[in-house]
Amino acid sequence: MTFTSRYVALGDSFTEGVGDWDDSLPNGVRGWADRVAEQLILAEDSWGYANLAIRGKKLHQVLAEQVDAAIALEPTLVSIYAGGNDILRPRVDIDTLMDSYDGAIAKLRASGAAVLMFTGFDSGRSPVFGATRGRTALYNELVREVADRHGAELVDYWRMKELQDERYWDIDRLHMAPAGHMFTAKKVLEVLRRTDTIDVPELDELPARTRAEQLRRDAQWAREYLGPWVGRRLRGVSSGDNLTPKYPIPVHPKVPVRS
């Protein structure tokens, strides 16, 4: 099928859709970008959708592996969020990182595509990832400058305070659950000035936990998720090392039976 409009999504696990699990879909995930594409296609069948994002990718990998590939698809719209995995490393030079990002955004805009960027999430309430809050704040200010300089649209993920609620997050506490991806998709479509039919589900009531129960829960999470995550980084490996993009060329993505 020939598409007259093409949306291409670039990035890491956030854009690939990790946390919004569905074994019937490529790479086993759906995600906010899929949901945005579905709404664009519902409104105009001429849209095609490609998603080149791969979990675990650092910013230089996203730029090296995905930007030229996206431009080759002659996109109408590109979304990109990169740098989150760099911010979580022990050391990172945010200024150098953003110089590379700036060049990539300029290149994408020069292709004629509209570009959608994101600020980073406010992890201030996280006992583990909250230590990177200052880095993310600096990253965000530079992202805003890049977006302004190149006329890119900006989704302000930092200001989505509703997502501070743990019920929007997957059990690994690093990726959004389906409700979080749905909420984010609605915000993206709002920035794009598009209507949507996404119905974010009611959140289950938070269970009351004693301090001892919370400590046991945190210890289990550290064993099952934090430890393996740290181990992969120490070994220089990623959960996305053996994955390929789930939609490498524009398609109408398969929509699961569930909403």
Descriptive notes:
The protein has eight helices and six strands; from the N terminus they run E-H-H-E-H-E-H-H-E-H-E-H-H-E. The protein has a six-stranded mixed β-sheet, with helices on both faces. It is globular and about 55 Å long. About 40% of the residues lie in helices and about 10% in strands. The longest helix has 25 residues, at about 210-235. The protein has helices spanning about 15, 30-45, 60-70, 85, 95-110, 135-150, 180-190, 210-235, and strands at about 5-10, 45-50, 75-80, 115-120, 155, 245-250.
Query: What is the fold-level CATH name, i.e. the topology of the largest domain?
Result: Rossmann fold
Can you tell me the CATH architecture of the largest domain? 3-Layer(aba) Sandwich
Determine the number of helices (DSSP H or I, runs of at least 4 residues).
Answer: 8
Rounded to an integer in angstroms, the radius of gyration calculated over CA atoms is: 18 Å
> What sequence of helices (H) and strands (E) makes up the elements?
EHHEHEHHEHEHHE
Total discrete domains: 2
Strand order of the largest sheet: 5-4-3-1-2-6
Q: What is the straight-line distance between the termini?
A: 25 Å
In the CATH hierarchy, what is the class of the largest domain? Alpha Beta
The largest pleated sheet is described as: 6 strands, mixed
Structural class: alpha/beta
| Uncertain stretches | none
How would you sum up the global shape?
Answer: globular
Look at the structure and give the mean pLDDT: 92
Number of DSSP E strands: 6
Beta-strand percentage range = 5-15%
Helix content: 40-55%
CATH H-level superfamily title of the largest domain = SGNH hydrolase
